[in-house]
């Protein structure tokens, strides 16, 4: 039974020597299972029934496919790609510069030993046992240089990171050693990060003489979380470069075997490799495979024989290689990167070695792997094996020279008094700042009616002969009426106006999320489809001559991966408005590690800024526990030292100003926006045209409708509109309703001013839809008490609850009514 299409050439070859082809075919398929991949021999070759063959062809095929290289490629559907790999596997390998390789192997080992001797008892996550990583990356860079790469964007976790900072990013050694020296603790109190998480940049000169900039991305402990960030950063750099971007910027992800197999965020990242909105023309993956994760054996870490198996979900080749055959490692490096540049595909190099010490150097591995560590104890370092195999005579002299170099650098490190930053920021960050908020950052965000109408004209028209869906046609007609002053402007239109005005002014816009092109709630319709031929027309890409790009992208069904990508993109595109949208805000917690580790803490830990925007639909509408809450409370708990902004604009114009403010100010801070659902088209949350011409976003919406109020209801979002409706129904003239539009940074002065408008009001009542243990309640109360003066501060909310909302729409209604009646107690 045929399992895959055969190319014409394959059929011709097979016809010429069918027996040889049959034998080779079996080895191409299954040879990797019998390959000699583990230097210590614990991972025994797995006998495959179809490979138990005799004869010359079998010996030849075994030599190619069951040596120290095992390649998995027969799952790739494209015959051209398979043939490409086959030809290179069956052809002669290129010469390796063994002197250069030896130098790197010695450096890798000695670097770790100097750290071990001088800084005993500190964690460094040694590379010893997998030091072939250095010659591997050297070869990856050599090929990248030949193909015109300008920069390697590299994401990696702990293992060997310091070695990479020294030998790939080529930071001066004394800087790296200085990371181990004591610094004045007052300079880093409460902030900063451990040395093996810091990013680094540098210049690398390749074997071929090309100069490649190295960018090692800052990384949290959370394994693999840096993957989508690295890819997103690469994509931003590629987009900036325009044509040939994917040739110039090459992403390299270095994974541990345990993390590669186990962490879902990597699987998410791999999934968008070939999608136009996220592709980077192929990522190079290297698994630094020590067949261990902390104390856990590989047979406990993954069901498949190899950690790399996960990559087979796509047509990605996997090059397994014995990490102690360094020439084979170098050969795989070349092949993998050439493949990446030829086919624009991801590639995986699974380099198998061992871990010389415990997980970190303060951990004793003989407790959990006594036999393995007995074998490791007697195993010589790789450079010794390589020097002997290659017959290099002056290795001992080389060792002495490199040792002396390291020791000199180490003694210089003591005189460095400030912790080195290890990196330079790209120039495109020059015009942006972080730190604490200053009022000076504010800019006017209103547009003239004429400008609004010009943009509307482009947003609501499409080419002649375009067959538009009747429902979309109606929507566009309504949108045209909005800026003609015939109907209030709703949220969807407000957003389109914000985006349109920005791309016209030279600010690129990129929004990705699940179903974001249409919009989960049918509100966006950013892409018009011809109903006869499905051709697309994107009005936002036709706003004005000379405009910049506007990409609205349907994402994969992922949160952590996609948010990580967009955060990464924002890191290398500060001029752009970069947004990620959750389908419902409730799903944002799937991306919690990206929020906690990068978005909230990135500036504090690494001094790195981002203006990424999170759009999180939020609101209690009877749709159950997982379609109600974006967990306002969690974001507020994470807020400190102006690390980000948390807003819930209650009407369309406020949303418009908020988006424009985010892009046009030079203050780069992540922005979390709780967005509406049912209110998207609700007249109460729509805005008159003149509100778009006024100057700015208001952090607080005061109540100007009521004079001499006795009480003030304070709220955020949808409940405020319901309170207003209730007040009207009750013909109440003594209650003011104030909206907090920006929860953080806390708009203290604006709130005080809004309260002072109602001097007779004796109480301020915080009203929220969320249960007492959720929403903004616990954040607001102490702050309100601080500014309330003589006034009492009270609250109305749902009872504390384990689940965010009821599953019953009826129960929801009863609860909502109760909230409103508690907010307006019976008179008398
Ligand atoms: C998400 C996450 N879970 C758990 C840990 C704790 N942890 C740190 S390293 C490690 C083992 C990693 O194994 P592997 O990926 O094979 O890398 P190695 O240390 O073997 O190089 C674990 C469990 C972590 N850092 N991140
Ligand atoms: Mg491991």
Explain how this protein is built.
This protein has 828 residues and is of the alpha/beta class. Helix content is 39%, strand content 14%. The chain contains 30 helices and 24 strands. The longest helix is centred in the N-terminal third of the chain and has 21 residues. The structure holds thiamine diphosphate and magnesium ion (MG). The site of thiamine diphosphate has 14 residues, from α11 and β7.
Features:
24 strands; 8-stranded mixed beta sheet; 30 helices; binds magnesium ion; single chain; 828 residues; 7-stranded mixed beta sheet; alpha/beta; binds thiamine diphosphate
Structure at a glance:
39% of the residues lie in helices and 14% in strands.
Task: Give the helix/strand layout.
Blueprint: H1 8-16, H2 18-34, H3 56-65, E1 69-72, H4 79-90, H5 98-118, H6 133-146, E2 151-156, H7 161-167, H8 173-178, E3 200-205, E4 211-216, H9 226-241, H10 245-248, E5 249-256, H11 257-262, H12 264-271, E6 284-289, E7 292-293, E8 296-297, H13 298-301, E9 318-322, H14 326-343, E10 347-352, H15 370-377, H16 382-390, H17 395-413, H18 449-459, H19 470-483, H20 491-504, E11 509-513, E12 528-529, E13 536-537, E14 550-554, H21 560-571, E15 577-581, H22 592-600, H23 602-606, E16 613-617, H24 632-638, E17 645-647, H25 652-664, E18 671-675, H26 690-693, E19 700-701, E20 711-715, H27 718-729, E21 735-740, E22 742-744, H28 748-756, E23 763-771, H29 777-787, E24 792-798, H30 809-823
Parallel strand pairs: 2-4, 2-5, 5-6, 6-10, 9-10, 11-14, 11-15, 15-16, 16-18, 17-18, 20-21, 20-23, 23-24
Antiparallel strand pairs: 1-9, 3-4, 7-8, 12-13, 17-22, 19-21
Bound molecules: thiamine diphosphate and magnesium ion.
